[in-house]
Amino acid sequence: MISRLRRWTRPYARTAALVVVLQLVQALGSLLLPTLNADVIDNGVLARDTDHILGRGALMLGAVLVQAGCAAGAVYLGARVGMGVGADLRAAVFASVQRFSAREFGRFGTPTLITRTTNDVQQLQVLVFTTLSALLSAPLLAVGGVVLAMGLDVPLSGVLLVAIPVAAAVIGVITRLMTRPSRLTQVRTDAVNRVLREQITGVRVIRAFGRDAHERRRFAAANGDLMAVALRLGRLQAFSGGSALLVINLAAISVVALGGPRVLGGDLRLGALVAFLGYLTQILMAVMVAMAVFEMVPRARVSADRITEVLTTEPGVPEPVVGAPLPAGPVGLDVRGVTFGYPGAEKSTVLEVDLMARPGQTTAIVGATGAGKTTLVNLMARLIDVDSGLVSVNGVDARELDRRALAGLVGVVPQRSYLFSGTIATNLRYGSPDATDDELWHALEVAQARDFVAAMPAGLDTPVAQGGSTVSGGQRQRLAIARALVARPRIYLFDDSFSALDASTEAALRAALADEIGDAAVVVVAQRLSTVRSADRIVVLDEGRVEAVGTHAELSRISPTYREILHSQGER
Ligand SMILES: Nc1ncnc2c1ncn2[C@@H]1O[C@H](COP(=O)(O)OP(=O)(O)OP(=O)(O)O)[C@@H](O)[C@H]1O
Q: What is the ipTM of this complex?
């Protein structure tokens, strides 16, 4: 794990080196104090030498001040390194997730990606911080303490021979015991996130079906599981803290019991006994600190594994090393023999599909629910990559185009349009940040959204809630269409984007769109016949395969599926 963390701590090497120096000075100060204390007792107090007491006292004060200053500096800089590493890791995980395609999102799931970016990174951040601010000085304090303690009195050092291995054994056992609950804690935090997220998103469905009690029980179960494992960890921590204190105090009692009579017998100086107690406490405290940090290691290792898994996951839609140049002028999109199956699915969702979208023409895709229409649109926009076959733009493989350039070329209005928290204007400018207000109003007009936006209290500056939950479904759809229009793409992919509009609004929108988009290529997925009837080309999809291609008139004759759709909508 250390080697994995090294990559992230490297940019902070200088600060970390400074922390090492500060910790060294701090530890030396700590080690000096018991010896000075012994000197004050033996040669000052017992010898009744006030000057010696004051002289050594001043020295002790100096040592304490230097030690405190260095300790504060080490903690401050340690925090800067820890927080810096944490921020860098979060940024890296975020960047990685941003490159994920639907495939990777499906594999990980949203809740765990959020936990990994926050909670798991926090584990590593805390480990780096405590290592720098506490663990670094522990070896010097322990080794230096042992050497100085032995210098004071060899026979008493026998106590250390017993106490240190006992403390070390406790570390080993507890660290091992903590590994499993640590891993479980992260997994169960994911589970709580998952349930919570689902319940917040689905709150209306829960209320509508009166399933509040059921959902409460579901959450209570996930929450209880998390608490159970957290308690198991807590018990182990309590045991480790308690046993460490027990070891320290038993060792101190043994030192007093063994050393006290020897002080009375004149065999050991009182100052040496007191100093020995000081070193004993320092040594065992150092062991205890190391123990506390080691206890974090299993948990941090689990987090490091979870973060590494995200960072090393290759996106299903990789970026080309050098993007091919963008085709100029009107743009057409071709799908040739494309097959795609979702990971884990038994059969392909899209099979050997051929389709073309020509500039200035509209291609409609129709088919039963689940026929693979949305999947096909996602393949065309390269939101997912084909398993085989080719999606090309003016003859250039879409995989060779720079992804941002491709996004500028292809405007997608998804089936479930999503609006970001902000205002109407910030949402509309999402794909074209420099668009003027006039351009926004124009796009709204084409999308049949001008009237309702104009009627809003702050017009374009009206706030929009995350997801667009403060506007109606039909309004959201129209805003999403306007957002695509503002970006002026050269290929439009409308995935069932008119479904929430009434027939007359849709007819007005289609008429306005036809004037607006000029020689752009349009692909429309639709259920409603009025939407597809006037298309230049209609592709009928059946269980992922193209059943037929043609105009409305042609398909009415040759395609059973198309006839079924006609039939279901009262036409023949
Ligand atoms: N992310 C996914 N992971 C696994 N399977 C998926 C995923 N998305 C869709 N599918 C499956 O792929 C098939 C086609 O789904 P798709 O959404 O492309 O159909 P559709 O024709 O757009 O349907 P609808 O008209 O109902 O929107 C369905 O059987 C669906 O279960």
A: 0.95
